[in-house]
Amino acid sequence: MTTPPLLSVRNLSVDYASAHGPVHAAVGISFDLHPGECVALVGESGSGKTTVGRALLGLLGNSATVNADTLEIEGRDALSFDNRDWRSVRGGTVGLVLQDALVSLDPLRSIGQEVSEAMRASGKKLGRKERKAAVIPTLEGVGLPDAATHVRQHAHQLSGGQRQRALIATAVAGEPRILIADEPTTALDVTVQRQVIDLLRQEREQGLGVVLISHDLAVVAEIADRVLVMRGGEVLEQGTPAEVLENPQNEYTRSLIAAVPGTEPASSADPADPLGTAGADERADSPQAVDPAPTAPATLTATGLHVTYRVPGVPEPKIGLSDVSLEVHQGRALGIVGESGSGKSTLLRVLLALQEPAQGNVTLDGEPWSGIPEAKRRVRRPRLQLVAQDPLSAFNPRFDVSQVLGEALLRVPAGERDRRIAEVLDAVALPTTVLTRHPLQLSGGQRQRIAIARALTAEPEILFCDEAVSALDVVVQAQILDLLDRLKRERDLGIVFVSHDLGVIAEVCDDVLVLKDGVVVESGSTDAVYGSPQHPYTQALLAARPMLGAV
């Protein structure tokens, strides 16, 4: 006897009203989700993936019109649900994990309180003491290390990966039958990605059904039973991961696969070597394939950096960085990789002189950069520019693009300012028509290009990219990486690229530095480190990365 599906969707369509008529966000979507199964929705930004996920939770709002021949959750007709019905379903029957944990978690609650509240809201018959006793095992179950300490901390006191694990803990705390996971691994390092993938597998073994919304095809390849490729609100192709990702029939699917960082075109790709490292030794001997080692003095040099900080409730200071040294050269890109809490963000703050090291020093163009008054640094700050993961958080929401770009040029004469703005827009391949638009009116890729353009207005020597492409779909990600590589060559830019994505580092960086617990465990050219990693931690990072070849 066939097990009834947890979800049954037939011919689901979602329209939004607009001044120019209805916008078809989803058209004719059909699939079933059975216990222990994972159905993945993939596609670039705006393809309709998240719209479908929100429809399954009743979270589309009054502006949306939902139609379907069938939309059933555990046999119940969700098309007839009122708000009370949806509230009874969320948490206890259908759980949700979003991409941005910092937005999703309550800033006024500790992580332990968040998980306990999720248990209570889901309708679990547990008293306060029982919930309190269950919190730490729940956090440990999602791979949060030292859960007994973190249970008392708030979201802003955790690293990005730790926050995401805490968010997943709140989603599974109510023991739902269905989990809607919207980009749950996008901002996570590879080891945490592996833990989340293993966790979802473990939960599926207990009968949890998962709808995975993701642009990460490698993660989809590892966990999904069925893949739906979406574009423009429609399903263009569907099947098992082996069918869709190894033998795609649709040209759009092929373009998505080709855009994955660290992969080669389908005609030459080796599915077992998605990083393209098999020939690293040969490439290292080829002057055409590898940029020569720098001979000019480094633009930015860090020597013997040490950083410690206090954690509430922990008597001993925690090591942020320990004896870290590096060089950044113009015209070369240095990748900094490591799992959450490894010290990547701390190192970035020290290099940007946003935090002073306890020991060690940083020099810029041979002159002291750390350990000096800010007044002496201010005139040189334009030489170092930051491109953040989320451009919206760095932009004034009241500004249009012309104001965003002009903000860094207030002391420049109007004519020269207009010329510089036009120049940087051309450099990032955006038309001048975007100048009158606000960032919220732009796509994610366009916003990231504006963030890069704003950094370029200062004519920097070094660009710091902090997870600058982690939130972008693979097509836009590939475009931004190509842009950064071109700018590096054309403008002789030095780039410091902080990322958890080893494929991205392989794509754009000449050199790589691997951090673990604030210590540099390995460094060298990207080809050498990836092709023949010497440290067990580097080997573990490379082994943990989800691979398209896993299907």
From TrEMBL:
What name does the UniProt record give this protein? ABC transporter ATP-binding protein
Q: Where is this region: Disordered?
A: 262-298
> From its record, what is one biological process in GO terms?
peptide transport
Q: Cite the SUPFAM superfamilies for this sequence.
A: P-loop containing nucleoside triphosphate hydrolases
Q: Which Gene3D superfamilies match?
A: P-loop containing nucleotide triphosphate hydrolases
State the UniProt keywords alphabetically.
ATP-binding, Nucleotide-binding, Transport
- Tell me if Transferase is a UniProt keyword of this record: no
